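Reply to thread "Modeling small-molecule complexes from scratch"

Following up on the discussion above, here's a worked example others can learn from. I took a protein sequence and the SMILES for S-adenosylmethionine and predicted the complex. Inputs first:
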Amino acid sequence: MKAAGDQSWYDARVTLPPLRTSIGEIPLHEYRLTLGDRTWSFLHTGAVVTLEDEQRFLERERDRLPYGVMLWPASIALAHDVLTRAGELRGKRVLELGAGTGVPGIVAASLGARVLQTDRNDVALHVCGMNAERNRVSGIEVRSADWETFTSDEPFDVILGSDVLYATTMHDRLRAICEAHLAPGGVVLFSDPFRAQSLPVLEAMDAEGWRAGLAKWSIAVESGTRTIAVYELSRR
Ligand SMILES: C[S@@+](CC[C@H](N)C(=O)[O-])C[C@H]1O[C@@H](n2cnc3c(N)ncnc32)[C@H](O)[C@@H]1O
């Protein structure tokens, strides 16, 4: 298992001026991810790292805050995984599905990829765009897109999705996007905290023309640690 987050910095007490949105003021915090000699800064509305954080969020905050603008550990693990592929990403076309705060896509763009970050939630897209700007990365397009209707004229070498497999009702759509939009030789990277709901689609893809691999990451931030799976899918 690979350890991550130990060199990163997160302090829930650091609050920035709130974001004014159509759904009211939203508190913003900063998460700094340091890897090697580079540090990225990401705005988010609160970390949902441990299982307890997740239960608390679902009970108290879900109706108030869009979940895409929270800091989810799957995005941190996927960013680490993306960084291990630094040499392969320059000039590659990357699609991020359900980008939320946009952590892995922004790291991919920092490595020279051309990245399309998509989400259906406007507040998440706004924060995602702020994060791209904050990290002074170029080569990113942020676009409103729903998995139900997503389409693109260009294929992608890499498709990223952190914590997007939680609703089984969306599995067929997400799989169809991968089938239709992954370039030959491309790779799909999904990450999540080993959610049981994710397994049916991963197993089905593995049985039907895809090769599935797994990397485990241990993510530590102030509120605790979580083990995250990064699933790598490529066509056989
Ligand atoms: C659990 S959040 C994860 C956000 C981000 N990837 C991360 O890991 O921090 C799931 C994200 O998927 C987005 N989403 C959910 N259903 C969607 C759909 N049908 N089309 C596009 N985005 C969707 C949500 O708006 C949200 O940003």
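What I'd highlight from this example: Residues 67-68, 72, 74-75, 98-101, 119-121, 124, 146-148, 162-164, 170 surround S-adenosylmethionine (CB under 6 Å). The first helix runs from residue 51 to 61. Questions welcome below.
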